[in-house]
Write a structure and sequence with these properties.
With about 350 residues, this protein is an all-alpha fold. It has helices spanning about 15-20, 20-25, 30-45, 50-55, 60-70, 75-105, 110-120, 125-130, 135-155, 165-180, 185-195, 195-210, 220-255, 255-270, 295-300, 315-340, and strands at about 275-280, 285-290, 290, 310. Helices cover about 70% and strands about 5% of the residues.
Length: about 350
């Protein structure tokens, strides 16, 4: 993605940035490590964008420029160090926290979904500022983005667990990679809609447990984990390169319309995050993931794979949901302010 410039700036200005200037003046390694840590956490939490986290700590331009250089086989030490620092700290955060995050989503879904709603809506002001001044292109793009999210919500019916074949996992990785490039867009949320959020977090947690098992590596668990992690990793790698270059081009040739689409995607993202739903044990004869379940299959089904069902909340749960939405909004605003102080605002926030 290119840095946001005033409307009076010639269209060729972003090319100079892409040529490497921000990388030459990139933030220090500690700032890049913090950005990678926050990006890793963001990719575990539906509603939070990894791109927004990089904007917040002021390394977004340097990151995208470094990715663009690498994708064109330009290898510079400064760019490689920056990417390695961000990717390494992000991977560490994902590996260590995937399990706890999954457990919270499964056991405290209404709490986590309420928090996710607040975090999602908190990204709206960021993209809104980037889209100024408003125009018909912004409005049209926002309408298109909102329509896409409505259609996705209707098709996916709330984001239950889906089949995790290799091709689906590669596509899920591509979707997740968008969060590393698009400020305000959550890869975790897209995974939630695709029904791949819990399976992928389970795979990552299995990888950690396989590598730290008593008596050494657990080969069976390692194979099971790699069957999930490898396809997702391939999708993420392809997605970062493809999406970053595509969005850079779109923001040069159709900046206002592209930002409008991002805004519409954000506004529509909360549709699939209705908090008052939980995993409900299926009944014999119920169709789940395309097959009719019998008593034996239901007994073997992990609770995290149960289909979601809505429930009537108590007054305490309603009040708690409102509070957690507010907490998510506050968290995003605090990170946004950090970006304004640390250079993120100058990077396009």
């Amino acid at each position: 993605m290119v840095p946001m410039q005033p409307e009076s700036t010639p269209p060729t200005a972003p090319a100079a940035t892409a040529a490497g200037a921000p990388v030459e003046t990139a933030a220090s390694t500690p700032r890049a490590a913090l950005g990678g840590l926050l990006m890793g956490l963001a990719n575990l939490v539906p509603g939070v964008s990894g791109g927004t986290m990089l904007l917040a700590v002021g390394v977004y331009e340097a990151f995208v420029s470094a990715v663009a250089e690498l994708s064109t086989l330009r290898f510079r030490l400064r760019s490689l160090v920056l990417l390695a620092t961000i990717a390494g700290s992000a991977a560490l955060a994902i590996l260590l926290l995937a399990g706890p995050t999954k457990e919270l989503v499964v056991s405290q879904r209404w709490v986590m979904y309420s928090l996710f709603i607040g975090l999602t809506l908190g990204g709206v002001p960021i993209v809104w500022r980037m889209a100024q001044p408003l125009s018909r292109a912004v409005a049209g793009g926002a309408t298109l983005g909102l329509a896409v999210m409505v259609a996705t919500f209707l098709v996916e019916a709330g984001g239950g667990s889906g089949e995790s074949d290799p091709l689906t996992l590669v596509v899920a990785g591509l979707a997740g990679a968008s969060a590393m490039v698009l400020p305000g867009i959550s890869g975790g949320y897209l995974l939630l809609l695709m029904g791949q959020y819990v399976p992928i977090l389970s795979g990552i947690d299995d990888l950690k447990r396989a590598l730290t098992a008593d008596g050494g590596v657990d080969p069976a668990l390692l194979r099971q984990a790699l069957a999930v992690v490898v396809p997702v990793g391939i999708g993420v790698g392809l997605g970062i390169v493809a999406v970053s270059n595509l969005v850079r081009w779109l923001l040069v040739s159709a900046r206002q319309a592209t930002l409008g689409v991002l805004l519409g995607l954000l506004l529509g993202a909360v549709l699939g995050l209705w908090p008052f739903q939980h995993g409900a044990r299926p009944e014999p004869g119920q169709v789940h993931d395309g097959r009719v379940l019998d008593a034996t299959e239901i007994a073997a089904l992990d609770p995290e794979d149960w289909p979601l069902a809505r429930f009537d909340p108590s007054p305490v749960q309603v009040a708690g949901a409102v509070a957690f939405v507010g907490l998510g909004l506050l968290a995003t605003r605090l990170i946004d302010r950090l970006g304004a102080r640390g250079g993120g605002a100058r990077s396009g926030a």
